[in-house]
Amino acid sequence: MNLVLRQIEKPQRWDQPFAPDMDEPALDRLLQIEPFRSMRAESFPPHLPLREILRNDCRIRVCHPSELVIRQGDYGNSAFLILEGRLLAALRLRNPDTFQTPLPPQKGWLQSVAQLWSRSRFPEVRRRADSADQPFTIQQTERQARVFLQDIPGTLELDGSQALEEGMIFGELSALSRSPRTATVVSQTSSRLLEIRWQGLRDLMKFDPSLRQRIDQLYRENGLRNHLQQTPLLEQMSAAEIEQIAAQTEFQSFGEYLWTPTFRKAAEADVAARIEQEPVIVQQGEYVNELLLIRGGFVRVTRQHGEGEQTIEYLGKGQVFGLRELVHNWRTGEQRPWQLSLRAVGYVDILRIPTKLVEELLLPRLDVKQLPPPLPPVSSQLGGENQQRRLAHREPMPETKLLEGIVEHRLMNGTQAMVIDLHRCTRCDDCVRACAATHDGNPRFVREGLVLDQWMFASACMHCQDPVCMIGCPTGAIARENSTGIISINEQTCIGCGMCANSCPYGSIKMVAINDPSGEPIVEKSNGLPILQATKCNLCIDQTGGPACQRACPHDALIRIDLTHPAEFTQWIGR
Amino acid sequence: MDSRINRPIARRLLSRRRLKNLVWTGLALTLFSLAVRYLDDNLYESSTFSGWALTAAIIVLAAFHWRKKIPVLAVLGSAAGWMQFHIYLGLSTFVMFGWHVHWSFPTGKLEQALSLAYLLVGGSGVFGLYLTRTTPRRLAAIQRQFIYEQIPLLRREVGRRARQLVLAEPAGNEILARIYVNRVAGFLEGPRGWTFAWWPNGSNCRKLIGELVSLDRYLAPAQRETSRQLMSLIREKDDLDYHEALQGRLKGWQFLHIAMTYSLLTLMVVHIVMAHAFAGGWR
Q: Which residues in chain B have their CB less than 8 angstroms from residue A442's CB?
């Protein structure tokens, strides 16, 4: 039997440029302005020349007065350099609920049913080989609707807003930390912006130290200010007081940006050594000198227990640590040290506000209801489950063994983790079949994964809060959906390099060999090797009714759940 | 993450849900029983009413299988909701059936066959409820979890590793090789039989491990290590067999339950046609 193969050129990083119209004169003009003028072309390697980065990873965006550039809460994968014009960045919206980006289009019920018989007969069919004469551009995959704000003061909180002028960079915070936009930016005049997608920004920073330094500084300054303004504990502070706090607050980062390799290495180590490898942010028993705000990432709260450390809870973005000790010391005049330790799990950004400032500006304003309960007496802190609970006072937590497992395997990163109750799951695989039915016959997960007690954390994409899979993608094919934050893979721009699959700490991304619509394997022209593409769960973003796996489980055994805050999970397991 | 894409589902207590469902089922059955009594007391044909109600209930129960075939249609609701409805409606049909046959077993051949088919489907449903509530816990008690379709492959792998272990033993002391050929190979590579499929237990595994342990005194230290590894493979094979038996039982039950449902539906249609044909026309 002759096997027919569809041969194509191996997909490359810049097959699909960010904008197709970045011509030579535009590139020449860009290279005449800062920061590109000061960049040394020879610092860039031959396979990543500066001019090509600008050509393929940047696009010019022309904005009209009152046009919305970025919206707070949306997910963005690019930063902006202002070439011309003036913009306004506001950190607070007057009515955030009515100012949301619409959801991506979903299938109607007729289209949903049609999927049942329009499904391909072959696995992993891609239509890219057929579209060679009709190149598919990134612009076609993005919704191009422009939004104009008729009533800027009525929509945006202008107190604390910032004017953005020519030459300034914005949007880097979201692009670098893979988190939602922290500000809404509106063009005040006609303006021209250079939008640099994350992959280009990463390479520019890598080969130009001055840009790296500038972006790092911006990241810290903006990250610090934005976070302080958005912290509920500080919401009664005036802009001047926030500035005063910002001036004295220290911004610290712990752990590695791409933490997958260290995580995998640590998994091979002894259990006690694994915890010891996590950087210490606060040490139990040491002097309390600051209030800590977690700006990004996750921290493990532990207490000394025998020869090891016992995890009591985990905290994530937006949470505060140390208020209890500070309030206790402030009210009683005692000098009680840290009752618990804090360790960085993965990459963590921390803001440290000095105790003196907290006592002067914050504590006198707090309502009695906002104050944490007093610390238990020293004599009662010798141990035991109840004492732990008394020290940990935040959200309800799963019992210790499960909690240790969740933190150990960094599952708290998942905003849509698939958890299966093995005491209810009959292994019928209706979930897998439903997944296949909504993905052209190809299931996007396997019903296996880590088991802790009776709970299976299946290897389906968890749509992480810190999606490390996105870090290495050379084309931006794996990205967050703008409005929902769901991480999906663009089949048209994925070149099958496998970076995302290697970076995913949970093994939730699979590389598959692809076929054309007639079932012929698509192979590389030069060596006949199969062309691979990354696949993973997209949370049925184009289907109505949410994830099909969850809807298909007849025994209430499977749920997609947010593990970043343990309360929801604790409630579910205790049902 | 945007809550608009996956709205939090109701996470009420399961015990509360059970109580609510029981109350509603009880109410519905009381109303149904009162209606039948009313029809009987007023000399109406209550069998027509109870028969059509039972027909409708059975069609809705069978529709659960069809619902599972179209998971893409969100408007049909969640499978968990359907399952709850399936359970309580299924249990209710026993009462409906009782009223329909006036609490006595019918005498006609067709009616007897139909009643038998109904009782088999209903009974298998109750048995299935027991299986689906008890088997998952037994499966979860095994440390490793296996996918049913992968079990034969994993079993072959266990057999291959055991063969390699024994073949790697230096010549001289053939005790291990002998027990492998005579006892272990059959266990690792052979089927476990119907008894094990219905009542899976670890007695054979324990017995074999006991035999290996008793040979320790005749083995050199290095061979004892091989013996320990063989024991571990025996346990692994036992776990695979256990999972296969229990998962296979669930799958077999579901297949029978569905197959019998189609038989019931067929007989039901014949019964309806016959009942109306010999009742002097449609009323």
A: none
Is the CB of A119 inside 8 Å of chain B's CB atoms? no
CA A312 to CA A386: how far, in whole Å?
Answer: 11
Task: Name the residue among A541, A544, A552 with its Cβ closest to that of B79.
Answer: A552
A103-112, A429-438, B162-171, B212-221: which has the minimum mean pLDDT? Answer: A103-112
Q: What DSSP element (H or E) covers A347?
A: strand A341-354
* Token pair belonging to B135: 């088997």
Residue B191: cis peptide before it, omega within 30 degrees of 0: no
A162 touches B at CB < 8 Å: no
pLDDT at A396 exceeding the cut of 80: no
Smallest CA-to-CA distance from A412 within A521, A268, A510, A313 is with A313
What's the mean per-residue pLDDT of chain B?
91
Q: Which residues contact B158 (CB under 8 A, 6 or more apart)?
A: B188, B233, B236, B237, B240
Size of chain A in residues: 575
**Mean pLDDT computed over every residue of chain A:** 86
Query: Predicted confidence band at A132 (pLDDT cuts at 50, 70, 90)?
Result: very low
Task: Indicate the SS3 state at residue A177.
Answer: helix
Tell which phi-psi region holds residue B280, choosing left (phi > 0), alpha (psi between -120 and 50) or beta: left
Indicate the pLDDT class of residue B283, thresholds 50, 70 and 90.
very low
Determine the distance in angstroms separating the CA of A425 from the nearest CA of chain B, rounded to an integer: 6
Q: What was the pLDDT predicted at B4?
A: 59
What is the predicted ipTM?
0.90
Residues 6+ apart with CB under 8 A from B15: none
Interface of B with A in 65-84 (CB under 8 A): 68, 70-75, 78-80, 82-83
Give the burial class of B176: count Cβ atoms within 10 A of its Cβ; 0-12 exposed, 13-18 middle, 19 or more buried. Answer: buried
Judge: B74–A112 Cβ closer than 8 Å, yes or no: yes
Residue A115 near chain B (CB below 8 Å): yes
**pLDDT at residue B16, as a whole number:** 87
B8 touches chain A (CB under 8 A): yes
- Whole-angstrom distance, CA of residue A371 vs CA of residue A360: 15
What is the mean predicted confidence (pLDDT) over A342-360?
Answer: 92
The closest CB to that of A548, out of B71, B140, B148, belongs to B71
For residue B5, the chain A residues in CB contact (below 8 A) are 103, 484, 486, 539, 541, 546
**Interchain CB distance below 8 Å, A555 and B14:** no
What is the rounded average pLDDT of the residues B35-40? 95
Q: Please indicate whether residue A90 or residue B263 has the higher confidence score (pLDDT).
A: B263
Per-residue CA distances from A415 to A284, A560, B47 (Å): 30, 8, 55
Residue B268: Cβ within 10 Å count? 19
